Amino acid sequence: MRGKLGFLVMAWVSCAVAGGVADVAVFAGATPAIEEPATRAQTRDYAALSKEIYAELIAFRSTADMPENVKAAAEAIQRRLIDAGFPAEDVQVVSPDPALGSVVARFRGQAPGGGPPTREPVMLMAHIDVVDALRSDWDFEPFELREIDGYFYGRGTEDNKAGIAHIVTSFIWMRDEGYVPDRDLIAVFTADEETSSDAIKYLVRERRDLVDSAFAINADAGGGELFDGEPNIFNVQAAEKIYVTFRFTATNPGGHSSRPRPDNAIYELTMALARLSEFTFPVDVGEVARLYFERSSSFTDGQAAVDMQAVAKDPPDGAAAARLSADSPFYNAILHTTCVATRLAAGHADNALPQTAEATVNCRVLPGQNPDDVEATLREVVGNDEIQITRVNTPTASDPSPLTEEIMGILEPIVEDMWPGVPIIPTMSPGATDGNYVRNAGIPVYGVAAIFGDPNDSRAHGQNERVGIKEYYDAQEFWYRLLKSLSGG
Ligand SMILES: [Zn+2]
């Protein structure tokens, strides 16, 4: 393990050394005809380029409220790729909404003997937008890349600008080398993953011509887990739960609070919520969760290891599932559909009986289950026809993406070489990303951010977001190798 890591560190050191020669290359560049693409690749420092792109992206406050910044970031990415030699018609800023912009960049491939590629393209996904961050909540300016004690800090360092920097750098690196993939590689950087996901919906539904692919690799999910600072497991996100929100509404004629009546909208609603709080949806272990528990059990100790084996059996052991769920909200979320109260609003005056009481109940439905059945179950649990249950959003079903031999055959050698002995574990996200809509459109999606981190210290959407500097550069190396391996290199 040490030897392999040593090799990787050497690879980067040699890049850095090559970077030292870059001045000469720039100087030689005064006679452009001399500089062959391969020469440029040999003398350019791609770790430095990756960081430069990363820093440029972090500096855009690309939030939902500031679409002009999202668009400016999209145009900056477009400029980088065109400046690197990609034809302008292959690097588009696309959007149904002129105020926004998603980037679709196609690295054109060729069949090995020449001519159009015979293999279908692969889509590479990341998103440009970020959840906003306030200077007052952070220890420093969030929209500035900062290096402190082995970490890169800044909004979007994890979610999801590292992914864009890794893909863009790999594109430029391969192009500099004169590399020709044996299939098209299509980078898709969306504008609104954190809010509506309208950009990806538009691309897969209305602009399928631009993005149609055999499968997609998503930089916005999956990753590696560090245990005591050492790489422990490599997660591939192969499924996501379905997001559906309900509103529970209790109504009442109301009246003066000095003359209370037995029926009361707030009491009825809270009793319904109390029943919901005691209800658990049945255990359902799909293929991805089964593999996850089976593989995780081998590096877990004690009762938890035994329980993981037991839930991976068919049928899963109910008592084991209950113990795992009690120990971990994450295990609970991947073993069950969940519905939880998230917001509450009721009454209109301190001295009036409430006429309306409303609760928001957010459900995360296991893939393969039907949101209609979840709604029917909620009505049963509430057990009160006076409480109206309505849907706030239309759920998008998303079938799990099977971990095919092709995918494992590509990932396993790279992961084994870079992080020897670290197993690849398929995971299901309790949350949802743009990947959901791509799966729904019939394109399998695999989340492989490849940035290792402490699973108990994820700061995406939170304060002082960060990723390890070494882990960032390792992931850059991983993406470069992955894109080559996906395309015959
Ligand atoms: Zn994200």
Question: How does this model look, in words?
Answer:
Helix content is 39%, strand content 20%. The protein is globular and about 85 Å long. By secondary structure, the protein is α/β, with parallel strands linked by helices. The longest helix has 19 residues, at 2-20. It has a six-stranded mixed beta sheet with strand order 1-2-6-3-7-17. Strands 16-9-8-18 form a four-stranded mixed beta sheet, sandwiched between helices. Strand 1 and strand 2 form a beta hairpin. The chain has 17 helices and 19 strands. It has two domains: 45-221 and 433-486, Zn peptidases (Aminopeptidase); 243-391, Alpha-Beta Plaits (2-Layer Sandwich), CATH 3.30.70. The model is unreliable at 1-34 (pLDDT under 50). Zinc ion (ZN) is lined by residues 127, 159-160, 193, 220, 433.
The class by helix and strand makeup works out as: alpha/beta
Distance between the ends: 25 Å
The gyration radius over C-alpha positions equals 25 Å
Share of residues in helices? 25-40%
Q: Strand share of the residues?
A: 15-25%
Compounds present? zinc ion
What is the fourth-level CATH superfamily of the largest domain? Zn peptidases
Q: What CATH architecture of the largest domain do you see?
A: 3-Layer(aba) Sandwich
Low-confidence stretches: 1-34
**Annotated CATH topology of the largest domain:** Aminopeptidase
Report strand order across the widest sheet: 1-2-6-3-7-17
Number of domains: 2
| Count of alpha and pi helical runs | 17
Biggest sheet details: 6 strands, mixed
Number of strands: 19
Average pLDDT taken over every residue: 89
Name of the level-1 CATH class of the largest domain? Alpha Beta
Which geometry do the CA atoms define?
globular
